[in-house]
Amino acid sequence: MSDIKRISSFVNSYIKDDEGLLGEIYYKAVSDGVPVIRKEARELLKTQLLIKKPKNILEIGTAVGYSSLFMSQFISNESRITTIELDEQRVIEAGNNIKLLGKEEVIKVIKGDALEIISGLPDASYDFLFVDAAKGQYINYYENLVRIAEPGAIIVSDNILQDGEILESHYTVEKRNRTIHDRMREYLYKITHDERVESAILSVADGMAVTIKK
Ligand SMILES: C[S@@+](CC[C@H](N)C(=O)[O-])C[C@H]1O[C@@H](n2cnc3c(N)ncnc32)[C@H](O)[C@@H]1O
């Protein structure tokens, strides 16, 4: 086992399982092959929510609602989560899971293409954004993310290291993955060089970036 895998497995051994229905939703999603947030990543997300205490959260990439439901445990009663998902079946399953946990008032799922939807959202309307959809799209989302984020908002981007493939050069990456690879590198450059934001790239789970709009 590589050192990175050993470290990850050590860290994971300290992470508590979700209790009750949320735990069942998580394990069902994993066994159905739904790409839910990794355990180490959700721990970072939890800490950011507890520090920031956001009122309006936007998630891009609902899947079956697990991460929204997870986040909903760490926000105030007045806070709301809007989450976007393209896949119809997943939207239905997310709706069922949200209902099962009685969180219909807290979490609203919007069905559709994230880029189209965020293009229509008002300026400075979210104080916490969690980006967890198609990795090749992050760079296309970027201008809208900065626009719809309030000053001081936190933007957390997941899976930015692409299981280490991001380290490879363009030509050593499999041809079919090159566009995603190049776009993610562009995104990482943007969030670390754009003067409107400050970012930290972290090697947590599959890589996470925490970006603050100034
Ligand atoms: C990694 S999964 C999200 C996992 C979820 N955040 C969780 O941890 O429980 C990414 C999701 O983004 C959705 N997605 C992909 N492209 C999208 C797009 N253009 N617009 C909206 N959702 C999209 C996929 O269908 C998939 O369900």
Structural class by secondary-structure content: alpha/beta
Radius of gyration: 17 Å
The CATH topology is what? Rossmann fold
- Approximately what portion of the residues adopt beta-strand conformation? 15-25%
Order of helices and strands: HHHEHEHEHEHEHEE
Ligand set: S-adenosylmethionine
- What is the CATH architecture term? 3-Layer(aba) Sandwich
Counting structural domains, the number is 1
End-to-end separation in angstroms reads 41 Å
Query: Going by CATH, what is the homologous superfamily?
Result: Vaccinia Virus protein VP39
Shape: globular
Give the neighbour order of strands across the main sheet: 3-2-1-4-5-7-6
Per CATH, the class reads Alpha Beta
Number of strands: 7
Q: What's the average pLDDT?
A: 95
Major beta sheet, specifics? 7 strands, mixed
Percent helix: 40-55%
SS field, number of helical segments: 8
What are the segments in which pLDDT stays under 50 over at least 5 consecutive residues?
none
Describe the structure.
With 214 residues, the chain is an alpha/beta fold. The chain has a single domain, classed as Vaccinia Virus protein VP39 (Rossmann fold, 3-Layer(aba) Sandwich). Helix content is 42%, strand content 21%. It has 8 helices and 7 strands, in the order H-H-H-E-H-E-H-E-H-E-H-E-H-E-E. Strands 3-2-1-4-5-7-6 form a 7-stranded mixed β-sheet, sandwiched between helices. Strand 1 (56-60), helix 4 (66-72) and strand 2 (80-85) form a beta-alpha-beta unit. The longest helix is centred in the C-terminal third of the chain and has 16 residues, at 178-193. The mean pLDDT is 95. The structure holds S-adenosylmethionine.
